[in-house]
Specification:
single chain; alpha/beta; six-stranded parallel beta sheet; two-stranded antiparallel sheet; 10 helices; elongated
């Protein structure tokens, strides 16, 4: 085996240690605030950010339990317009950048980040599962400038810029939201200290609690009968330590099976989610 390549056993041990750490963190927070209270804090912090009272919010925790929905809903409730898909707007439409937000998903290079910050220098940028900007040293330096506590936040790119429409420096007056499946302990401290942070790390029981709360909302999966959703939730609750992914995606999948296969739906659901 080449030097520097960790053995499979080491990687598994490291992954197990990370899961144990996250579980301990979740249990520690659980003693003070419930998972639904923490989701409420997300909405409150995003409202502060939308009004300009906060420059950055970091939301961390496992995927598939409503982080992105909570953030975008809070921004929309604050009167901000999602301009992520510009093809939804007609030619000639004027977009008020001060009251708009853009969601960036996937991978971004440092230069791509520089352009994104420049083009949204007066609005809100939501980096959703775009962890590359939180790991690359150059990207982190750009973000430190964007989130600094100085009265004027200047971002500079002193390397060669061949794009004539990009300046070598500009003032950033916008706000930034980071949504990540990583836990807060994995993130750069410089970003955390410049932001309001909500860690939504959950135990299995907290995930079930969150899913049951969403299930009680009339606008959650309204296309399915309540009994189908409740039966699916009860099955997932019973199998919570065995399912491959304890998330809303699993709940939706099992609900569909419940609706389509009334006789053997439990066996089929268990096979597809635990196999």
């Amino acid at each position: 085996m080449p030097r520097g390549v960790p053995k499979a056993g080491f990687r598994k041990t490291k992954a197990a240690l990370a899961r144990t750490t996250e579980s301990l963190m979740a249990k520690a927070v659980e003693s003070r605030f419930s998972i639904n209270e923490r989701f409420g804090f997300v909405s409150d912090m995003i409202a502060m950010l939308a009004s300009g009272d906060q420059a950055s919010v970091v939301v961390t925790g496992p995927g598939g339990l409503g982080k992105s929905f909570t953030v975008t809903k809070a921004l929309a409730d604050a009167g901000m317009v999602d301009v992520s898909l510009l093809d939804e707007f007609n030619i000639g439409d004027k977009i008020n950048t001060k009251t708009s937000f853009r969601v960036i998903k996937g991978y971004s290079t440092p230069k791509g980040l520089y352009r994104t910050l420049y083009e949204n220098r007066n609005g809100v940028v939501v980096f959703d599962d775009c962890d590359s900007v939180l790991k690359d040293p150059v990207s982190l330096n750009l973000l430190k400038g964007a989130l600094d506590s100085y009265e004027r936040r200047i971002i500079s790119w002193r390397a060669d810029i061949r794009d004539e429409d990009l300046p070598t420096s500009f003032e950033f007056r916008g706000r930034v939201v980071f949504i990540s499946n990583m836990s807060s302990v994995q993130l750069d401290q410089a970003i955390l200290t410049r932001s309001m942070v909500v860690d939504l790390t959950m135990t299995n029981s907290q995930k079930i609690e969150r899913m049951r709360f969403l299930l009680s909302q009339s606008d959650f999966m309204p296309e399915f009968e309540s009994k189908y959703k409740q039966d699916a939730m009860d099955l997932i609750d019973r199998l919570q330590d065995e399912v491959k992914e304890l998330s809303l995606r699993t709940l939706i999948q099992v609900t569909k099976i419940r609706k389509a296969s009334p006789r053997n739906w439990q066996d089929l659901a268990e096979y597809t989610t635990c196999g």
